[in-house]
Amino acid sequence: MESSEAGTWSGSEYQVFLSFRGPDTRHGFTDCLYHGLTDAGICVFRDDEELPIGERIDGALPRAIDNSRIYIPIFSQTYASSQWCLRELAQIVENASKSSGHKEILPIFFDVEPDDVKLKTPLYRDAILNLEHEKNLSTEQVDSWRVALKEVDAIKGWEVKKYKG
């Protein structure tokens, strides 16, 4: 893509799609990453920047995922507590697996361990169980999230520890 500025949603293709849990990283890490990428001329989709007020999330987010080439899921403490994040991730993994290598996933583990994402610890495992019971979700839907988490964890990612100073 030849764009040198952040894209708008008017059907343009994004180079990067950021998947993140807002309360954990929106005004810190994700904000810095977003501005660093856009300052470098990379066209980035971030839901609070690119979705117009009144736009239906359930239509716009899947389109943005489909129209992106690189996916950066930012796994954080409450990422797995959000069914929106997990739906995004399942679609991201599906798109990347069908792309014959044309779409890439670059995971970031922000203040979580890869074992959390692999569902080897209670952090993500319990969050998904809670969603499943609270929202009365289908087993098929929840299983797709578990598969997506395990698939993404097989990709070498960046581990970022939260600064505690």
Major sheet attributes? 6 strands, parallel
Number of structural domains: 1
Write down the secondary-structure element order.
Answer: EHHEHHEHEEHHHE
Q: Note the total helix count.
A: 8
> Beta-strand percentage?
15-25%
Helical percentage: 40-55%
CATH class: Alpha Beta
Please state the second-level CATH architecture: 3-Layer(aba) Sandwich
Describe, in short, the structure shown.
The protein has 165 residues and is of the alpha/beta class.
Question: What labels describe this entry?
Answer:
165 residues; alpha/beta; Rossmann fold; 6-stranded parallel sheet; globular
Task: Report on this structure.
It is a single chain. By secondary structure, the chain is an alpha/beta fold. The protein has one domain: Toll/interleukin-1 receptor homology (TIR) domain (Rossmann fold). The protein has 8 helices and 6 strands. Strands 1, 2, 3, 4, 5 and 6 form a 6-stranded parallel beta sheet that branches. β3, α5 and β4 form a beta-alpha-beta unit. The radius of gyration is 15 Å and the shape is globular. The N and C termini lie far apart (40 Å). One of its GO terms (molecular function) is NAD+ nucleosidase activity, cyclic ADP-ribose generating. It comes from Eucalyptus globulus (Tasmanian blue gum).
